[in-house]
Amino acid sequence: MQDYSKMNPNDFSQKDLMLHLLQVAQHTVTREELKEDISDIKEYIAKVETRFDKVEARFDKVDEKISKVEIALKQDISKVEIGLRQDISKVEIGLRQDISKVEIALRQDISKVEIALKQDNKDLIKRVDRFMFWSLSLTITSTFLILGLIYKIIPQ
After folding, report:
1. pLDDT by residue (tens digit) across 113-127?
2. Number of domains in the chain
3. pTM (2 decimals)?
């Protein structure tokens, strides 16, 4: 499309005038057409707004569901925490009982070992005493025998 505003009026021919008028006529809209277009646009806008309202209602429903899920999750988490605390408490009690049983068993074993050691000690002392008695007896007997032999061998 030519720009006629910059054209020299002396060079403007009848053909240029006709082309210009034709182009202007093609771009000119009647009031009825404009009213129809405005009406169509308003109708389209109304449909779009209706769709937005429906979408907004869906978002509200989704928000409600999310809120319900959040509440349910919080309740579930709370139940799990309570359950875990109870389980931990039970385990602690069980461990304390097991530790107590082990301590008692160890004390009993230590007592048995102490008693056994004392008995072994007494037995060992008895053996040493017997050994010492027999050693001393043998030493005395050997001494007398040797003295007797020496007395017989050496004339007086």
Report:
1. 999 998 988 888 988
2. 1
3. 0.42
